[in-house]
Amino acid sequence: MTTDTVPELFGPYRIEELLGRGGMGEVHRAYDTGNDRHVALKRLPGFADAEFRARFRREARLVAGLDEPHIVPIHDHGEIDGRLYLDMALIDGPDLKRVLADGPLSPSRAIEILTQVARALDAAHAAGVLHRDVKPANILLDEAGNAYLADFGIARPLADDVTKLTNTGDYVGTLDYMAPERLMRGEVDVNAASDVYALACVLFQCLTGRVPFPAPDTVGKLAAQLNDPPPAPSLFDRRIPPAMDLVVRTGMEKDPKRRYPSAGELMAAAAAVTAESPTAVSVELPRTGDHFVHLLMSYLQDETPTPGENTADSCPYPGLQSFGIRDSDWFFGREQAVRDLLARLSRQRGGDGPLIVVGASGAGKSSLLHAGLLAAQARAGEKSLAMTPGDRPVGTLAARLAALTRTDPLRLAGRLWERPSDFGELCRVAAGENAPLVVAVDQAEEMFTLCHDPREREVFATALASAWPARVVLAVRADFVEHCITLPPLKPSLDAPYVLGPLSAEELARVVTKPAEVAGLELEPGLVDRLVTDVGAGRDPGALPRLAHALRETWRNRTGNRLTLTGYQRTGGVDRAVALTADGVYNRLAPADQWALRGALLRMVTLLDGGGIARRRAHRSEVPHRALESLVSARLVTVDADAVSLSHDALLTSWPRLRQWVDEDRAALLVRQQLGEAVTNWRKGGQDRGDLYRGARLAAALDWSNGRADVSADERAFLTASERDRRRTTRRLRGFVVGLAALLVLALVAGGIAFVARGEADEARNEAQSRALAAESLSEADADPVDAMRKAVEGWHTAETVEARGALLSAPMLTYPTAFKSGLRQGYAIDVSADGRYVAVGSGEGEVAVWDVVERRRLDIDITAARTVLAVKFSPDGTMLAVSSVDPTDNEVSGVKVWSIPDRKLIRRLSDVNEALGPIAWRPDGQAVAAISVRADVTMAIGEFDPTTGNLIRWIGTAQPNTISIAYSVRGDRLAAGNGAGRLDLWNTANGTLVSTNTEHLSTARMNEDGIVSVLVAFSPELLATASVADNTIRLWNPETGALVRSFRDITRHVTDPGQGPSALVFSPDGTVLYTNSNTTALSIWDPLTGSYAGSITQGRRGGSSAAKTVLAIAVSRDGRTRVASASDGAVLRWHTNVSWHSSPTESVTGLDISPDGHTATAGDASGAITSWDIRTGDEVGGQGRLDSATYAVRYTPDGTRITGSITATLTVTTTRGGVSRPRSIHLTGREFRGAIAVSPDGKLFAAAHGAPVRLGKESDYRIGVWDVATLAQRAELKAGEQSPAELLFSSDGERLLALTNNEGTSVVGSDTDGTNTATLLGWRLPDLTEEDPVRLGSDSLITSVFTPDGRSLLTAGTGRMIEIRDPRTGRVLDRFGRHSSTIRKIAISRDGRIIATITSDDSVVRLWDLRSKRLLAVLTGHVAPVNELVFAPDGKSLASGGTDTDIGVWQLAPDQVVRRLCANLADAGETDLASIGC
User: Sorted alphabetically, which CDD domains does this protein's record hold (predicted)?
Assistant: First the structure.
């Protein structure tokens, strides 16, 4: 401050520098002259409207009432000179957002900060205040590192029906941290769980340095928050423990009920991950029964309600939803049931098992647990664990318990899986010296309706039955008790369940009167008697939801503070209130939406045996958005991450319209339900032909599915397979039908139908058949890729429809299986050469076959072996093959021999004093083979042998008896050996020392009669994997030290299976995939980073039979493209990776381009990795590079120079001459680059847009730099101000540089702070870059643009969802076409200007358009997540795409070339009769 500046005075405050500016005013550093201190002074602008003034006053009132050390305290608040102000303590330090700008925090520091924030949130929630804007910018840090939660400017009380202060109904908060329920429901029924979600988002950002769902626009963020699963932080930084993934996932669950109940529990679980697990101490059992006696006494004393203060605006009746713990003050009528429950718990003993509460739907079981039992436990200050099972009950139980025990939740889940009986000990540790833990499992029927794994149900039930001294209470619907009987651990509990019956007249009266008394409401005389009479005391056990709904609607119709009979009558009464509300929602919809709502609601219903109906879950996309909003607002449905379900069974019985729909559609509902069960059985049975539909069932299902748009992919694949099977057995009938069809045509002609009309009918029929074949091709892509390719070709030759073109161009992207007979009776061992060309198979009869899979012929090489071939291994260069075989009756023929593949002859037999035997492994350099032999001292050892001489090179270490598997590490410095006694040894090959040994597989194995626990070993670059057929656990170890990294269950196996684990395993060369034969008829895929099962690759069709054979051995080529397996019938199964896909990126693809010669593609991802590969072969070229941060652009100049840009504004120009690359970089300090870049047509210039990092109170400052490609000299720096450049482009003639910009807006609902959102075209004329007048393009945000090759038109697109053709000079829209389902993210155009390709923000397809006709050409499917990047090859014959699924696809666009390729693929797959489809 200069001496001549007069400081601003505001009452007693002297205003100093600006600290920040936001939606609720400005915050200045100020000096309080009255109290001699510096403060943070927040002031609302004088022109603020009434809504903002009310919100500002509310912030002052709410925060002033909070007393917690980590909430920024308020000294004073009021109004001076017409401006509202807030005097707060000055926290002299940065906010967390500024700290994170320097990178992520260590896990310990992140947890230290956010644990303090969690305490602040829990204190606010306890006081009934919801923050609603938890984010790094609102977390302040002082010099000592203490954290403070600030800015309660949009907080609100937690009362359900508090008056909203946003008159627009817009969302308030910051989208990056906003819980899905706030996006779906606005502020209706939102509670503290939304703040827990936001805190979990902040935790993720602290650990990774990025927000959970980054997206360039509002639409993308909305879609991600609503639909995408929570990201795993360990994927971004391997130093983050994988167990933290479970903590973040639980905190960010889409369903609020499945998150941690409080912010403190979230951070306790996070802290447990980084801390050592506490040692379980022996605690003397407390007198557990006394605690529940005390609870009972306290409950008896607290039964008298206390009238509330100023609560008349809060509805004390929950409607169709249940009471929660926070609603206990409103919970009446079930006092006796609560007393009974506490008394039963006080009398329980260790062998009694869980207490099961049984009641009809609507009896109030959930309210009894939460507002009764758990509320009593909470008032006593004791711990409890509440949950619903969901589809992963064991994982949910572990996540909840981890917060209480401060243990690693991932390890806890594994421990519960392996030893569920430990749950009691864990509960005791959680409770400590305090009263026993109470575990409440609500909606226990979800064990049967949502969890489809019988083994997980049994593990979960066993854990609950072993919980003593904890008390477990399960609430289950009466009609599911018989299901509980199937779980042996629950049988003791079923001897004495607690039955929750109907309410008496007195209890019903308390349900009505006592909440009103607490809320300060008056009841008109006669209203209570009328309600009790209408409900029918003691007659209907499920009447509570209808009564609560009628009371809630009566409250809405209240007169002042009084609930009246008239208001009640307007609801339609207890029996009709639900129907009137539901009919009101239905009647307000347009006819089309009404019909869609009918179909959606029928998807939420399932038929029961005996003709009854029950609720089921429907996908959220099936419900029209307007209908969904109305249903949620009326509390008729509940919504979670991707599903919608009816709020209560009362809707099934109390809404006549829904019952009528069910009766009208009962037959179709039954068909669909039975179809779903048949599909499940078909999948479980390995897609066996015997499970397919036939005859009348098939006819009924096909008739039902005809013309329906809501048939699932699995249902469609099942029906297609059934229909194909039917056609296979009725080919003769087809000829007869064709004859009849010909006779019918003749009859129609004879009847006077014109030839032209017949031709039109034929064309229409062909088009319909073409579309049907295309749909079947797409639906079968995963289940039967070979048939999908066949139908794509057939559909295209039938009629060239849009759908057929899309299926045809998508089919080459499929990876398909091939199978051929090896000539052996069975395949005990298999290997594949480094390049995938040769496959060797060994049998149990001493035979070895070597096949050239390219030429599809067996090599003429006579390999002699003993009776059983144990292993066949190609050398790393593929020129030699080592074969190990054994004959127990003849040691002379047993041993290891090495053969030359090019010469087709034996090289040497490996031996020292004795012959080498048993398992073998090639050293990575190919100079040695490791094998077992007997030394001169008659001890067994592992030795290295020279493959060219057969002589011993050196001994590595002692071999254990029955060693059955050995493998070298990738670098060759370690060798692992597994034997038949469950032992794993890890050796240092350099000095022959034993690094580690363990027998963990032996300790967890299910022993068979022979007692063998054979351990298999396999290395990746970063892990050592082990498994055993006798053990259900796959383990991953540190390959250097042998320390356990993680373990996981083989979930494909059941406890009753003879084999508990796989008998073969191998890594992909890059270590990202672990393959096993766990699914014995397929290749099972595992993610070694998380231990999760990723599915399986099936054998495909085998000679027309669906009976897949057992996979005995597996191998992967050195380049990772070919996976092979040998089957029990001697067949070789082969899966060759499609070169159309490139999967090196490990994160979202954020930059992509193709070289000018069309041979090389280069991609960059969000981790900063840069990868180039040959499009023709799929081979990587030049090695992988890495930028200093996330890649945001890749561009080639016409001469092949490559330009890349990273988010930290580092622009790198790489020229390659003579095979040598020379990178040169520009770094723009303090700037950020977000992807807008362009290269001039002559390749001499490039332009890139950059901006300053977002800082509170700082205006945006966007600029565009123009550089010389050859010298990197900057030609100009052009200013865009607050206009954010979305795209830069040079005109086709190189005379203009254009920037497509949007002015920055911060509102979640898509408008600027000033209410506008204007797209603008900025322009500069070359060569001197003279600025042109800006051109306004409209109110839609425009995200992408491209010139047509002739330069006459500019194509733009964005949130308007259509492609716009504009005059590039005036910006005037000349035409619009191509309606899309969401925001158009990218446009690309072929060099000849004929084809346009587009991608959107919320689907994973690529759309092709004909620019001349402005019609859709095709929809390309293959990506599994939204696409980010799109570029045509220079010749326009192919197109590359890359997206958030981390894959890059290269699509061929010429149908004739694609047909030839598909026909070759079909021949390779062994298909016959290809001429019939036009091949």
Answer: STKc_PknB_like
